[in-house]
């Protein structure tokens, strides 16, 4: 397996697991640089880079841009080049310039795209509306899990996973997770309990407003978070003149699409930030932004830790640290 194939396989694994990430591909180079067109790397939600897109000076810039892509679900083209190379040039539309003072002197243009993570839909219950939802939701981009007493894959063939119980021990795949309680009188409270316990990002309940309000009161009295309980959408769906379970399911599905976009789904959500010993800092030698949480090169001097994008910068600093004592302040 080539390096590119390995990177793409890792990207597919992140997507399948519903985890955030971004794929970086070198599209153009101006020598001297160790990166070549077609080189690839994937950056995961914790800011770790897997693959190869050039030397150590380029990696912090790629990781930073990848995190931005994960946060706003937008692709971007970055150009990493020597600071003096673009000093007198006007900014180019659609290109984010990153200046560096590394010794290599080359230029890299790298395209960064967030990985596509399908939002998850948990359908709780085996009602006729649940069957229609399970059949249609996958066609508009949801990864569907059905949980219904005694259900099997043959009963819900369109679902990615079928659980024969309203009780789930683990959160289904997909980010964010939306849940629809479609029990319709056969385990309503248990279905709501499961959705709340799994921390679903959006819960819709197919029921009348009166029935939903009574169950909200019961759930709060049993200790469920009041904010999460009050946020349950009931009656579920957008207003339609729905007259049968299939039409009700269409209404609910339309509401789920609205909720998905409100939650920023369809690509990735902003990942939880990884713990870092300090804020992002500047490499005192080359001026690149470095994340202490992922930096491989550091040294102690003057009662503080200094971080570097590569071993070359660290070596230069250690030769005469006093000369750089005023650099490396937080970015």
TrEMBL record:
<dbReference type="InterPro" id="IPR012348">
    <property type="entry name" value="RNR-like"/>
</dbReference>
<dbReference type="InterPro" id="IPR011017">
    <property type="entry name" value="TRASH_dom"/>
</dbReference>
<feature type="domain" description="TRASH">
    <location>
        <begin position="283"/>
        <end position="321"/>
    </location>
</feature>
<dbReference type="Pfam" id="PF04945">
    <property type="entry name" value="YHS"/>
</dbReference>
<dbReference type="InterPro" id="IPR003777">
    <property type="entry name" value="XdhC_CoxI"/>
</dbReference>
<dbReference type="InterPro" id="IPR027051">
    <property type="entry name" value="XdhC_Rossmann_dom"/>
</dbReference>
<dbReference type="Pfam" id="PF13478">
    <property type="entry name" value="XdhC_C"/>
</dbReference>
<dbReference type="InterPro" id="IPR009078">
    <property type="entry name" value="Ferritin-like_SF"/>
</dbReference>
<dbReference type="Pfam" id="PF02625">
    <property type="entry name" value="XdhC_CoxI"/>
</dbReference>
<dbReference type="InterPro" id="IPR052698">
    <property type="entry name" value="MoCofactor_Util/Proc"/>
</dbReference>
<protein>
    <submittedName>
        <fullName>XdhC family protein</fullName>
    </submittedName>
</protein>
<dbReference type="InterPro" id="IPR007029">
    <property type="entry name" value="YHS_dom"/>
</dbReference>
């Amino acid at each position: 397996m080539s390096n590119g194939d390995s990177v793409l396989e890792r990207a597919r694994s992140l997507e399948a697991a519903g985890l955030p990430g971004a794929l970086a591909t070198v599209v153009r180079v101006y020598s001297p640089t160790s990166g070549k067109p077609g080189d690839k790397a994937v950056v995961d939600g914790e800011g770790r880079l897997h693959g190869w897109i050039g030397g150590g000076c380029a990696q912090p810039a790629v990781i930073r841009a990848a995190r931005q892509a994960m946060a706003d679900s937008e692709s971007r083209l970055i150009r990493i080049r020597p600071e003096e190379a673009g000093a007198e040039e006007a900014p180019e539309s659609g290109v984010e310039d990153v200046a560096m003072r590394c010794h290599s002197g080359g230029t890299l243009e790298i395209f960064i795209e967030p990985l596509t993570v399908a939002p998850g839909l948990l359908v709780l219950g085996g009602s006729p509306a649940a069957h229609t939802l399970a059949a249609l939701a996958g066609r508009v981009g949801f990864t569907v899990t059905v949980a219904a007493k005694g259900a099997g894959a043959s009963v819900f063939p369109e679902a990615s996973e079928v659980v024969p119980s309203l009780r789930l021990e683990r959160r289904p795949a997909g980010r964010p997770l939306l849940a629809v309680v479609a029990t319709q009188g056969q385990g309503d409270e248990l279905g709501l309990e499961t959705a709340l316990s799994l921390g679903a990002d959006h819960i819709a309940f197919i029921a009348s407003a009166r029935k939903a309000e009574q169950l909200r009161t019961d759930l709060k009295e049993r200790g469920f978070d009041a904010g999460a309980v009050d946020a349950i959408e009931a009656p579920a769906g957008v207003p339609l003149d729905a007259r049968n379970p299939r039409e009700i399911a269409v209404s609910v599905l339309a509401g789920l699409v609205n909720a998905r976009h409100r939650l920023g789904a369809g690509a990735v959500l902003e990942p939880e930030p990884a713990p870092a010993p300090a804020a992002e800092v500047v490499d005192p030698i080359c001026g690149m932004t470095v994340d202490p949480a992922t930096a491989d090169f550091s040294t102690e001097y003057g009662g503080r830790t200094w971080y570097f994008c590569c071993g070359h910068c660290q070596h230069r600093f250690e030769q005469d640290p006093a000369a750089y004592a005023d650099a490396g302040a937080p970015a």
